[in-house]
Amino acid sequence: MGKTLHRRAAFIALARALAVGVRGGPGLGVRLAALPRMILATARGRYDGGLRLALMTAATAYIISPVDLLPEVPLALLGLADDAVMVTWLAGSVLAETERFLEWEASQASVVPGEMAG
């Protein structure tokens, strides 16, 4: 039952974060499709998202990991809260970073290498 509550709380937090972040910006599908391009551009050194991607990867590993800083069993709701906070932070970070990346990507399309705008 603890894992069910854990997952439910995490998905509720994720849904709330996505609902807040998607209004007025690019759609969720566009953002998710941008993730592989963002990772590739970062790996090639073209985009400066290295630290943010590392933090998002660490947050994902923490959420997936069975080891928690605040375990659910002895701490009940407090144990679920750390996971819910992490899921909410991760969702918000993904939304913010993909929006920043999409803006960067759009600006790169207007730049012609080797020519000076006059």
User: How widely separated are the two ends?
Assistant: 65 Å
Instruction: Please tell me the overall pLDDT.
Output: 77
Number of strands: 0
| Helix share, percent | over 70%
Strand content: under 5%
Q: Give the helices and strands as they follow along the chain.
A: HHHHH
Class derived from helix and strand content:
mainly alpha
Strand count, sense and barrel status of the largest sheet are: none
Helices, by number, come to: 5
Radius of gyration based on Cα positions: 18 Å
Runs in which pLDDT lies below 50 for 5 or more consecutive residues are none
Supply the key terms.
118 residues, mainly alpha, 5 helices
Description:
There is one protein chain. The model has no long low-confidence stretch (mean pLDDT 77). The longest helix has 33 residues, at 77-109. The chain has 118 residues and is an all-alpha fold. Helix 1 (2-22) packs parallel to helix 5 (77-109) and helix 2 crosses helix 5. It has helices at residues 2-22, 28-43, 50-64, 72-75, 77-109. It contains 5 helices and no strands. It is elongated and about 60 Å long.
Give a brief description:
By secondary structure, the chain is mainly α. Helix content is 75%, strand content 0%.
How is the secondary structure organized here?
Blueprint: H1 2-22, H2 28-43, H3 50-64, H4 72-75, H5 77-109
Helix pairs in contact: 1-5, 2-5, 3-5
